[in-house]
Q: What sequence folds into this?
């Protein structure tokens, strides 16, 4: 479950991001060279893969950070990152064939962005060989279409690039200081290591043209003195545009990349866990050894009062090793800095003796509001069908039959996931633009086939997407309607309905409109024709009738909690209609929904549970008990073949809130014990042994930024043991911390949130008249190739 967040489009400010390129007192002059990358230039479709970088390596915390590689990309030098953005588990976005024109303005040398301390023994220098700028003018034929189309990126190359051989030579660096006598005459570092990664790309796959950034780590011969000023002198052979850079080592102001914190902050009253991590991967120099720092003092520096106080000591956590998905996310041994008992609201930096400090974060009782708001707006900006009257402009075109694009139609077909030809098609059949041979006789169309949410930069909407309805509504229901905010910045904000419900309703309504001529419920829409004039509707299936019954029943229950009786009745009736159309068919059909498999009978179980909540009819309770696969506390809630979590939550809510009588209390207790047991085994246990301390379910670990903790949310909501609830809460906080900055990139893994977040990712919001991409979108963070031929 992704954390529900700041209502602003991320912006790119090169003047603030980079130090001025001044050589001999003058800014370097550059001549413009036009380079065209198209089919003749590199033999590939020159479509628009998103630039991956906008900061990184040793980049400042005040700079937006790229979605570079995977979340542990600091442990993988020189690997091309995958930067597709995801709202839920998506298919990879297609590339459209458009020639890409790049304007390249060479500068005199690699651009030195920053020099800073990692700790008292290591200094970091960060260079760029180039950078990518986006136009974002909202003009031209590709305006408002998102990341799949180029609007004429400008790549500025800083030539000549960094001489990596010279940059690895300790003799090419001299550190001096007028305040530190050991450095009075200048000393060379003992050793140099380097990390290089992609910072930008022209998005032409698979032979894209990339810009690079380099972080050099200098191991010093003597420890730096707190408060002293130093100058790093760089030899001309390195090819740096700046030959000397000053810095001061100050524990309370020298922000260290080795300290990893939740950049948004912490709730002061949640003493289950407040902590940071200490580690650093230094490229070809391997992991920084902080064993000598164990026992060092950890302090909190109050930014407003300019005072610091003791908060604990550095403790060893785990050796470097396998983590989520068996990857090594930290590539380093990990030390912890715990300050869980501290509970005074304010703005702070975490300070570690001999290391430096973290960026600023807050202790506030509303600390999770901005992530919630931004994440919800992210869902809104994945909608299909919205008008262009908002800023930023939602993704276009609207794909509404008969309206936009002109002449657009949706044809009904006999083809779909349960058709015998489906698995023979190869690749992703939803990406096949031409299903014309499967048109229904008479070529009927569906004029109401519009809406729903896109999957990354695709336009198809299929049954695998419906889990977003459940993930939006589950926290609302578990919290008995506490997440009732109606001012998060979506179109419906201010209408008196919680925005969470409005966003889920947009998806539910799309599926209720996706019917065939016989009243059946369709499995989805494919991607549009190249001319954007045709989509095809997949065949109806009883499986989708069960899915619509589950969606509508859960939404009806949410409206019941919100006190909207008329809307609760509307969606109750829609659920009952879908239930009747399903009959008893499709119960053994299965499909991958969200991150796991769902059978038709799991959907029936879920629909019955929520319909029992909203109607009180015993027939629905009897149906849910018949379909319930959870018989004992040892039963699995989610298996390789199915998942009954959302239906289980509904029945437990019925009992907790005393909505209706419980016909089988023994089964109810088994459900409660089973979900707690599952959360402990599949989530909490991971947080106790992983170097990252992440608690997300390992079964879904291919996508590195996925946060699958739904079972923990349900278990915490219904646990009645104080120690158990505290353990579950700790696991939730640690997973939230990872996505909000406590990761190797020191970046919030969501666009538009915090002082440092992804910007150059493959998602919507480019060339829409507002700088940056749409807010609330999370990259996969994977360095893995999507398949043969991609990277």
A:
């Amino acid at each position: 479950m992704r954390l529900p967040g700041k209502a602003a489009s991320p912006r790119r400010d090169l003047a603030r991001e980079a130090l001025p390129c001044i050589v001999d007192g003058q800014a370097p002059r550059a001549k413009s060279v036009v380079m065209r990358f198209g089919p003749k230039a590199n033999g590939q479709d020159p479509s628009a893969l998103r630039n991956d970088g906008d900061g990184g390596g040793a980049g400042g915390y005040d700079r937006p950070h790229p979605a570079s590689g995977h979340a542990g990309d600091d442990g993988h030098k020189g690997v091309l990152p995958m930067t597709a953005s995801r709202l839920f588990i998506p298919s990879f976005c297609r590339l459209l064939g458009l020639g890409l024109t790049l304007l390249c303005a060479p500068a005199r040398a690699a651009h030195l962005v920053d020099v800073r301390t990692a700790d008292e023994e290591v200094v970091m220098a960060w260079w760029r060989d180039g950078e990518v700028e986006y136009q974002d003018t909202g003009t031209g034929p590709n305006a408002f279409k998102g990341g799949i189309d180029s609007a004429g990126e400008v790549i500025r190359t800083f030539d000549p690039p960094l001489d990596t051989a010279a940059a690895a030579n300790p003799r090419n660096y001299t550190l001096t200081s007028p305040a530190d006598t050991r450095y009075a005459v200048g000393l060379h570092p003992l050793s140099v290591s380097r990390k290089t990664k992609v910072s930008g790309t022209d998005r032409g796959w698979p032979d894209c043209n990339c810009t690079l950034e380099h972080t050099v780590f200098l191991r010093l011969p003597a420890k730096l003195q707190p408060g002293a000023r130093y100058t790093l002198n760089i030899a001309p052979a390195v090819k740096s545009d700046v030959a000397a850079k000053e810095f001061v080592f100050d524990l309370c102001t020298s922000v260290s990349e080795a300290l990893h914190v939740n950049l948004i902050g912490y709730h002061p009253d949640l003493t289950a866990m407040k902590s940071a991590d200490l580690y650093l991967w230094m490229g070809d120099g391997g992991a920084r050894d902080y064993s000598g720092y164990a026992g060092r003092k950890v302090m909190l520096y109050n930014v407003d009062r300019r005072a610091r106080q003791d908060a604990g000591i550095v403790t060893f956590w785990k050796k470097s090793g396998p983590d989520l998905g068996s990857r090594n996310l930290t590539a380093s041994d990990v030390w912890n800095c715990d300050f869980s008992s501290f509970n005074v609201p304010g703005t702070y930096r975490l300070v570690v003796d001999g290391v430096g400090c973290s960026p600023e974060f807050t202790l506030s009782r509303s600390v999770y509001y901005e992530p919630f708001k931004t994440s919800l707006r992210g869902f809104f900006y994945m909608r299909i069908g919205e008008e262009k009257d908002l800023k930023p402009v939602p993704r276009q075109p609207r794909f509404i039959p008969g309206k936009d694009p002109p002449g657009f139609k949706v044809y009904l077909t006999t083809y779909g996931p349960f058709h015998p030809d489906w698995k023979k098609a190869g690749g992703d059949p939803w990406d096949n633009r031409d299903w014309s041979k499967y048109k229904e006789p008479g070529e009927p169309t569906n004029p109401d086939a519009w809406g729903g949410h896109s999957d990354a930069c695709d336009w198809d909407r299929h049954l695998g997407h419906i889990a977003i309805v459940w993930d939006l509504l589950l926290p609302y229901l578990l919290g008995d309607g506490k997440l009732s905010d109606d001012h998060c910045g979506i179109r419906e904000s201010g209408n008196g309905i919680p925005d969470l419900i409005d966003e889920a309703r947009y998806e539910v309504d799309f599926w209720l409109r996706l019917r065939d001529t016989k009243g059946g419920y369709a499995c989805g829409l494919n991607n549009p024709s190249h001319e954007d004039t045709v989509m095809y509707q997949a065949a109806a299936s009883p499986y989708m009738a069960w899915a619509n019954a589950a969606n509508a029943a859960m939404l009806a229950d949410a409206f019941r909690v919100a006190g909207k009786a008329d809307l609760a009745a509307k969606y109750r009736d829609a659920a009952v209609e879908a239930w009747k159309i399903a009959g008893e068919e499709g119960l053994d059909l299965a499909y991958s929904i969200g991150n796991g498999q769902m059978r038709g009978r799991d959907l029936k179980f879920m629909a019955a549970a929520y319909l029992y909540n909203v109607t009180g009819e015993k027939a629905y309770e009897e149906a849910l008990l018949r379909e319930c696969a959870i018989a004992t506390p040892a039963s699995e809630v989610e298996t390789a073949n199915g998942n009954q979590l959302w239906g289980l939550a509904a029945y437990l809510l019925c009992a907790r809130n005393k909505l209706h009588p419980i016909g089988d209390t023994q089964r109810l207790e088994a459900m409660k014990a089973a979900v707690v047991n599952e959360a402990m085994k599949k989530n909490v246990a991971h947080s106790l042994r992983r170097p990252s301390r992440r608690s997300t379910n390992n079964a879904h670990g291919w996508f590195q930024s996925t946060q699958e903790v739904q079972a923990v949310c349900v278990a915490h909501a219904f646990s009645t043991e104080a120690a158990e609830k505290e353990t579950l809460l700790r696991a939730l906080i640690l997973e939230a911390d990872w996505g909000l900055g406590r990761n190797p990139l020191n970046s919030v893994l969501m666009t538009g949130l915090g002082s440092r977040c992804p910007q150059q990712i493959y998602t919507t919001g480019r060339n829409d008249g507002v700088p940056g991409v749409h807010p609330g979108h999370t990259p996969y963070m994977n360095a893995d190739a999507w398949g043969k031929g991609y990277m």
About this structure: The CA atoms of residues 139 and 285 lie 46 Å apart. Confidence is low (pLDDT under 50) at residues 1-107. The two ends are 29 Å apart (CA to CA). DSSP finds 14 helices and 28 strands in the chain.
